[in-house]
Design a protein that fits this description.
354 residues; mainly alpha; A middle domain of Talin 1; 76% helix; globular
Length: 354
């Protein structure tokens, strides 16, 4: 019970840190006067995806000894199997939750608000250019991450660098193809919650860039500290229950770290900001399949010992491909996104049978 209590506390701290961090990133986008597509696919996506990246980084590097670091650099990672499993589970769990539960919640929000009369159409009004590009980048990069499982460490290093280059290309295409007609985000839009730290400065009528960056740094520090405790608790739980830390981190970690994407997308669906709602998720998918995977390729063994991980890759790619095909054929509706939740149930059922 004591471990469960501390687990819940650490999850709550991660969630609170995520909310504060996301609030900072959204205000940064507003201050820079970026479009909905840019803010959703890059700033909001990277900002809300950072927690999932922090967890494996903390698992690998927090309190690491010189001997362990030497093993990592040499690629001799067998003795660090516990850290490997927690890190790989967190890295793969993020796109898994995004492509299943997060997409499902977009569909559920569309269904709920359509039947309540808040929305008049079944259609989810996405920016097809942004979404199609995001899904193609994700499918390509995550397929390479899957292929890397069967390759030697030398190829891991090459693919890791290649994925970073992919994300650089993605950023370039996103900024160069920004639509001039897109509405700019601003405080007056009413789409942003007040900057949280501004409550302590009542004399400041409009948040300054310094205040925004201060909140950003504070939230990041809280996130790293709470992620460290979360990783330690996962190790204890997996040891006492004799359950694979990979399964625990795969299913449990993203529940907390993906909450910002899920919460933000639901809120934006309520506000009929469909481009932000879906772009936040699809942009996070691209980020999660590049930078965090590179961390895994460079600093973990990136090997599979459980069939559950094979299935996890397959589920992510199938859902992304399904949404992409439906996007090309017709307008996306909430029904298409609801279908993405089906494979999550299939996966949970399979885990208990494997």
């Amino acid at each position: 019970m004591e471990l469960l209590f501390f687990l819940i506390i650490s999850l709550v701290f991660i969630l609170v840190s995520c909310i504060i961090f996301t609030n900072s990133v959204e205000w940064l986008g507003a201050r820079l006067n970026l479009s909905h597509g840019i803010t959703g696919s890059i700033l909001a996506a990277v900002g809300t995806a950072l927690p999932e990246t922090v967890v494996p980084l903390v698992a690998i590097f927090w309190g690491i000894t010189q001997a362990d670091f030497a093993l990592i650099l040499k690629g001799d990672l067998d003795s660090l199997s516990l850290t490997n499993q927690i890190s790989i589970g967190a890295i793969i769990g993020a796109p898994f939750m995004l492509s299943t539960i997060a997409f499902f919640l977009v569909g559920l929000a569309g269904f709920v608000y359509k039947n309540s009369g808040r929305r008049k159409s079944d259609v989810i009004a996405v920016d097809k250019t942004f979404l199609e590009r995001d899904l193609k980048f994700f499918i390509l990069s995550f397929t390479l991450a899957f292929v890397a499982v069967f390759l030697s460490r030398g190829f891991h290093l090459i693919l890791g660098m290649l994925l970073i280059c992919f994300y650089g290309v993605y950023l370039y295409e996103t900024f160069t193809k920004e639509k001039d007609v897109e509405k700019k985000l601003s405080h007056e839009d009413g789409t942003l919650d007040p900057l949280l730290i501004a409550r302590f400065f009542p004399d400041v009528k409009k948040p300054t860039l310094i205040l925004i960056l201060l909140q950003l740094v504070i939230s990041l520090g809280c996130l790293i500290y709470s992620a460290h405790h979360f990783v330690e608790i996962i190790k204890e739980i997996s040891h006492k229950l004799d359950v694979s830390p990979f399964i625990i981190s795969l299913l449990l970690t993203p529940i907390a770290t993906e909450l910002p994407e899920k919460f933000n997308s639901w809120l934006w669906m309520r506000q009929k900001q469909d481009i932000l709602a879906v772009g936040n998720i699809s942009g996070a998918l691209v980020f999660q399949s590049t930078f965090p995977v590179t961390v895994g390729l460079l600093f973990t063994s990136w090997t599979i010992k459980s069939p559950a991980l094979y299935l996890c890759f397959v589920v992510c790619l199938v859902n992304a491909l399904f949404v992409l095909i439906m996007l090309k054929k017709k307008e996306l509706t909430y029904k298409h996104f609801l279908c993405c939740g089906f494979l999550y149930l299939v996966y949970l059922s399979a885990i208990f049978l494997i």
